[in-house]
Amino acid sequence: MPANKQIHLDNRPEGEATAANFKLVESQTPALADGQVLVRHHYLSLDPYMRGRMNDSKSYAASQPLGQTFQGGTVGEVVESRNPKYAVGDKVVGFGGWQQYSVVDATQPGALRKVDTTHVPLSHYLGAVGMPGVTAWYGLVKIIAPKEGETLVVSAASGAVGSAFGALAKARGCRVVGIAGGPDKCKYVTDELGFDACIDYRQHPDVKSMSAALKQACPDGIDGYFENVGGYILDAVLLRLNAFARIALCGMIAGYDGQPLPLTNPTLLLINRVKLEGFIVSEHMEVWPDALKELGTLVGSGKLRPRESIAEGIEAAPQAFLGLLKGKNFGKQLVKLA
Amino acid sequence: MPANKQIHLDNRPEGEATAANFKLVESQTPALADGQVLVRHHYLSLDPYMRGRMNDSKSYAASQPLGQTFQGGTVGEVVESRNPKYAVGDKVVGFGGWQQYSVVDATQPGALRKVDTTHVPLSHYLGAVGMPGVTAWYGLVKIIAPKEGETLVVSAASGAVGSAFGALAKARGCRVVGIAGGPDKCKYVTDELGFDACIDYRQHPDVKSMSAALKQACPDGIDGYFENVGGYILDAVLLRLNAFARIALCGMIAGYDGQPLPLTNPTLLLINRVKLEGFIVSEHMEVWPDALKELGTLVGSGKLRPRESIAEGIEAAPQAFLGLLKGKNFGKQLVKLA
């Protein structure tokens, strides 16, 4: 029964989320019951959707209860098992939360999934070959449904979702243009991820400038947009959409803290006969096997080279998460726990 | 060769459209060539989409050329024919424009359509059993795709599109709530069109009040919304959407003159995993036969009782059109020409 450090949600943010919303708690892991396994977490996933869960209000993610371990995706290793299907040493993906260990009832379908780390490092199962990768896959394949040769744009392009989107779209013969913050991220997006172009939003901080940059990067207009950020970038994209464009609405991180950011000219959705669809990937479990298979192959073959920002130790999780909300991470944000 | 009064678009509006944008012109109808027919228009259709065509800028409707007869749907009677398929006296639907007569090359597919006025008055082929009716049908059947028992809302409910939407939705077992301006229109919507409820937007002139009215009229939330107006009504509807709601974006008349009206909180589209789709019905000709058949049956059987606002004479067309943009019409806006 090892000691187990956990991060609880202690109180809800008013406006911007802060470190004071979280609380470090130490406990003992309980003894296992039949069917349970004890997982030692190697990595905790930090994801933008968690900001929504900090609020009490209705969100696409259920509200995180106060005074309990903050929920989240984890990868780790079975260190004790009272379940015949799991052996000590098995590498597993689960939803263990912001803590060092979790006790999992492995008889529940979907509670744990064994993974093979021969070709794919364990941490990537929280990113490119995990929820963020499948998110990109769903938005691309099921909502945007691109034809070869179409031009697609994705915001937060260097992130876990954006980078997977780029590889998946290139594999379908599309022109892919990313939007990211700063020259280093943009260089990574074009040079290492293979995007056709990347726009640095810091160089284009308003609608007019961003719209001009999009015009240059997308000379044939935009057929599909995968939205992670919202705000003025969405306004600018709307000005460059082709008729019958599709928008996969995955996240609007720019508005997660504080006041909602308006969409300036929704009439453009009508003028261009746009289809826009919001989604949350956990409601589409039927696509996960196909998506994970393609993503695993892209990573295994080196066609998708995900980048990671790794914070050290559970104590670092709140600050790393707050940094993620401000775009301080570079690629998938993880916390290394073992 | 009868004299033919026409209304031309003389100049483009800056901001609000005015009567000075139009010009009355008198000409002679030319002699017919082989294949052509001369149609005497009985009614001209006035439709909100025409406002978009007055602008030079990109719109979902192509720009109307200056110095030419303003384009628009018409019904009338063949008065001279050099086409073996059309006889003098045939009642026809076409796109004859803002004028008393049109010369039509009836060899062109789709240029004219003969209609039967036994059960459906000729004018309704410009409304419930014409483009507006099919518009309602497409948004309902192809975008909202409702299940029995779902709650649907439509703005501009007493208009040509809204009234057809209500009848089509009731036929599918839905709860249908209209939004219209003033007690007379609301009474018509519930008492004659059979909507379950109607909200008078003049009594609810802001988001908060409209949202409260929607909550009362839609106790189970909103599953589908057919949008004709935009502005704060759309904002209010977004606050009452259920998860997986669908929005058919047909018109945003509130923003047609002047500055675009923003959508205040697009994040709600994500939170509720909404599907929103803009469309223009002339791009979906494949649905017209099925749609017109159902609409004709609804009108013929008295289940859909369309109301019409009829202006007299081609000279009255510009003022009637400007009134339509302000909601001064009651039901389908027509101009009687013969």
From TrEMBL, chains A, B:
InterPro entries the record matches: ADH-like_C (IPR013149), ADH_N_2 (IPR041694), ER (IPR020843), GroES-like_sf (IPR011032), MDR_fam (IPR045010), NAD(P)-bd_dom_sf (IPR036291)
Molecular function as annotated in GO: oxidoreductase activity, acting on the CH-CH group of donors, NAD or NADP as acceptor
Residues covered by the Enoyl reductase (ER) domain: 17-335
A Pfam family this chain is assigned to: ADH_N_2
Protein name: NADP-dependent oxidoreductase
Species this chain originates from: Xenophilus arseniciresistens
Keywords: Oxidoreductase
